[in-house]
Amino acid sequence: MGRIDEALRRAGRPRRDQELHRPAGGLFVSPWSAADGDFAGERVSTIAPPPAVPRLAAPWPVRPHRSELVSPIERFAAGWRERLAIGPNSDPLLADQFRRLAATLLHVQRTEKLRTVMVTSALAADGKTMTSLNLSLVLSEAFRRRVLLVEGDLRRPAISRVVGLPAGPGLSEALKSNDDRKPTLIQLTETLTLLPAGQPDADPLSALTSPRLQALLQDASEKFDWVIVDTAPLAATTDATLLCPLVDAVLLVVRAGRTPLESINRAVDALGRERILGIVLNASEQAEAVGYEHYSDAVPAGATSLNLATDN
Fold this sequence. Notes:
alpha/beta; 13% strand
C-alpha cells in the first residue's frame, strides 16, 4: 500500500495513431498564440483579490507579477483544501503519492512523446477531479513545469467551482462558437493555467467532436510542458472515449472498495487497454482497514497501479 508497483511505462505502448493537425477548415484561434513568441501568460486572465491600495489600471493584457498571485491553497474552496497534495497542511502520505506519480510521468516523458494526459474514472465520485487537480498542482508547484489543466467535463464541471471561479464562458462556448472567439484562460499560479469548461452543457458531443478541440490540444502540447484533461466518468457518457484519441495517454481512476470489477473492465474496454498508461487506485488505505486487502486484484492484467491513501 502507498507505493507505485512499477514505473508507469508500457513497453511498446502505441502512441496516437498519427500526429494531430490543425483542421483545414473552420475557425481556430489559439488562446496562447502571440506574435512575439511562445506563450508566457500574457493572454491569461487572473482571479486575484483586489489590491489593498488603489492603483492605476495597466493596459490589457498584463502578466501578473509573482507577488500579485494568490497562494494556490487560498484559491480553493475550504472543503477542498485538506484534499490537496500541496500546502503546509497537506497529508504527507497523499503528497508523497502524487509526487511519485508526477515524477514517474516525468520519467516516462524523457523516453516517450508524452505531454497530454486524460484523467477519467469508471464511475462518478471515484476521485478523477481530485486526481487531476493534485497532479496538476504537483507538476506545476513542486516540479515547476508549465501545466495547462483542461476542465473537459463539460456536463458537470467541478474544477471552476472548486477554485472559486465565477460562472462564465469557457471551453464549451469557444468550441461551438461561429466566430474566432478565444477560450478563456485563468492563471492560477505562475506555472498553472486553467482552461475552464464554461457553462454546463447537457449535450456536449458536438463540442467534443469539433476540429477546434483537436487543434487546441495540439497547440497546447506545444506551448505547455503538460496538459492534464479532466473528463466525465465513463459509466454514464461516451465523452471520455471521444477525447481519448486526442491525448497521448490515459490515467484511469478507480476507488478501492467501491468500483466494481465489472465497471473497471467496461472502462478498460471502452478506452482500449493500450491507451491506458496506468490505474490510480484511490482510497486504498481505507479499503484495507475494512477488509479489502486484495482489492488490487480488480486492476486489469497488464496495467500498473498507484495507490492513493485518500477518501476524496
